[in-house]
From TrEMBL:
Transmembrane parts of this sequence: 28-51, 63-83, 145-163, 175-197, 204-230, 250-268, 335-356, 362-383, 395-417
Native source species: Halarchaeum grantii
Membrane topology: Multi-pass membrane protein
Span list, region Disordered: 449-469
Stated name of the protein: Xanthine permease
Annotated Gene Ontology cellular component terms: plasma membrane
Amino acid sequence: MVDKMASETDTEIDLEYGLDDRPPWLKAILLGLQHVAVMIVPATAVAYIVAGAVGLDAATTAYIVQMVLLFSGLATVVQAYTVGPVGAKLPVVMGTSFTFVGAAATIGVNYGLGAVFGAILVTGWLVEGLIGWQFKRIQKYFPPLVTGLVVVIIGLYLVPAAMDNAAGGAGTEHYGALYNLALAALVLGVAVVLNMFTDGVTRLLSTLIAIGAGYVGAAALTVTGVAPGLVDFGPVGAAAWFAVPQPGRFGFSIQPVPVITFAFLFLVSAMETVGDMSSVTSAEGRTPTDEEFRGGLFTDGLMSSLGGAFGAFPVTSFSQNAGVINFTGVMSRHVVGIAGVMLAVLGLSPKVGAVVTTIPSAVFGGAVLLMAGMVAASGARLITLHTTLDRRNMVILAVSLGLGLGVATTPEALSGLPRAAETFFGEPVIVTALSALLLNTFVPGEQSPLFDDPEVPAGDRDADAVSTD
């Protein structure tokens, strides 16, 4: 089924640059910078949140941020170009996911960061490596209905966080201030206008130009005294020009609860990556091939474990950047490869990274709000291209999205569950993915792996099952 879908091109979007196209160098660099600008703040935010919860000092926090950027960049380059069987040869931007924030913070407080990085080191490659290795056998359990729902919930789940950033950042003194909302609206408006009403380079770089316009506006507000400190270059002066990665800086501790917790989260991360890769290739009107899925999952697991050895949190595919690809029509993996190099350089130079992180939350929020919507829209597109919306599939959509959005918007509803169950079922992606997976598997229908596969006659299915065991 996947191979058939991979050959479909009549439903692709209007691509400016295809998978293997190489834009001119200057344009490619700017397009790569656009990917970096969209993902760098949320990628580093995970490090800041966990460091704050654990109580790390500024220097240690800066080191973790550095490692996050370095391994996000290396993993992105591997995805674009591959190293042996590792990598998908797809434009998949990698970064740290909010999926791991709660567990990393809780385990860091209760068990220490050594237990966090020890669990990452063990479970990253073990879980996602196993899934990638056997993905050809289990891929029938992840049809477009399931992976599309994962993409949709990821996009919808990002919207509240984007709105918090657009308002200035949750918990900040000036949350909801008019100037924050104005900056977010400026970024959103510029991006939409340039994308919808212009052609050429301005459309391709619409998100980057919009972030630049918002940044200029924020600087003006800072200089005029309307919003003092909105753009703060203080951390830039304090940051070092170059820092060397230090393996084992936080030590390693292998303990059962952290290992089991991260094993479940890496399963979710694998489903996110499957969904994001499907979102990327949906621009060509297809789903990824077996080889692409396997290589992408190998990258998730191996680079997460390798990064954990140096003090980086797990890397996974970034949904915002899948949205950028569908929004701009630039699918070139070489552009994403350039973005990966940029991220790796930022990871080796804390001072350069500090400059990028001066982007105000409101500016970032305006861009991510658009990208989150595009992610959800690309997931919906993936579903509608390859799924008949009959009664069965509509019920699966309703139950999966209803439960996922339910725990996302009202997490306190699960407070009566045991702590471990509350943590597990409080993840919207987990709830949506498991609901879609179980319902699609056990309810008879076209995409069910147990029942009505339209490509394999009932008699042949039994024979195939015998021959592959």
